[in-house]
Description:
The chain is of the alpha/beta class. It contains 7 helices and 15 strands. It has helices spanning about 60-65, 165-170, 225-230, 255-270, 290-300, 305, 335-370; strands spanning about 5, 20-30, 50-55, 70, 90-95, 100-105, 110-115, 120-125, 140-150, 155-160, 190-195, 200-205, 230-240, 275-280, 320-325.
Amino acid sequence: MVFLTRILQRAPGARKRGFVDKLRVYVRGGSGGMGLPKYNGRGGDGGHVVFVAKDDLTLKQVIDRTPNKRFIAGVGANATRRAIQGDRGPNLTVEVPTGITVLTDTKQVIANLNQPGDQAVVAKGGQGGAHWSDFLPKKGQIRSVTMELKLISDVGLVGFPNAGKSTLLKAVSSADPKIADYPFTTMRPQIGIVQYKDLRRVSLADLPGLIEGAHNNVGMGHHFLRHVERTKLLLFMVDVHGFVLSMKHPHRTAFQTVALLMKELELYKSDLVDKPAVLAINKMDMTGAGDRAEELLYKLEHFEDSVTELPKDMRPRRQVQFEDIFQISAKEKQGLNKLKDKVREILDERFDEEQNELKQQAMQRLQKEASYGKTTDRTADVI
Ligand SMILES: Nc1nc2c(ncn2[C@@H]2O[C@H](COP(=O)(O)OP(=O)(O)OP(=O)(O)O)[C@@H](O)[C@H]2O)c(=O)[nH]1
Ligand SMILES: [Mg+2]
């Protein structure tokens, strides 16, 4: 059987980037307050900049809240005749997404914020002036830090139950997930490693199936989408014949399942829709699959019109732009090589982009330093 590959190309220049998984910000601890020699008074210490992990927050929201990306804590109060110990400057607490690593420009890890409520001081306040410093205060720590969303794997499998996600994971990696013909076989994420001939390894996360209403906790709920957030690439998977949960539920065509998946993603966090994504149409070995696949491709190409077959509240506002669409049989291991190659191509391309960005940042820093005629302290203390 011939497995066609159709490409719905993104508009040139309209590459992803809506999804932010890395953010560099400026942080500065507050300066200390002045001491008061006459009374041996001590200035208050400057406040710290503290990052606190919060669930359900994205890096994009952090930018929206503070577009200038500068976080500066409060200064300590000067010592006075009435208050010979100046008050401490207030800390600046910044809410950041759970699951990030905070790094210095030299790539030293300041903190891993894995659980909601985890916190870390990312810029210390300066000491208040006192007799040991001639009553002169210290400045707060100044630096740039990068927040990186930690990835659980390179690729995340997104699909309705029974689409064949676990079957695909088993076919392309050494993982041995449970496979069965009833929905919700997979209860928790499982990661497999796909190894390429040149030994490049790509991790693939098999996630529990999603269904319409997942955002309202239907089925397994959309709790697992937080893992999707932490992958570089989404691999959507659909059963070419669609899905039906039970006799009581409506049958959803392959097109409808794709649109409903987009909707669930959007309802979880709208910027997930901007992640790089590919679509695998599975079970192409079954009879009638060719016609169904053609229908799905046609409907995806005429998305705006086709989506009207769903009730209004189930229609995604924006469409995920697939970089490529594959027709495969996970069970019969057909069409899998092309899919694997494309996945790798997208990941490698993205990796290149990251490298270029880092190089550019380094160049900009060097230029800045040269224009000041001095080098800045690039080995600031790591807390
Ligand atoms: N004919 C055919 N059957 C398939 C194919 N891929 C998977 N199946 C069958 O579809 C059923 C579901 O497969 P799974 O891999 O468990 O599906 P899943 O997407 O992981 O399902 P959940 O874990 O419930 O979300 C099993 O009976 C598989 O054997 C395929 O390419 N062709
Ligand atoms: Mg499964």
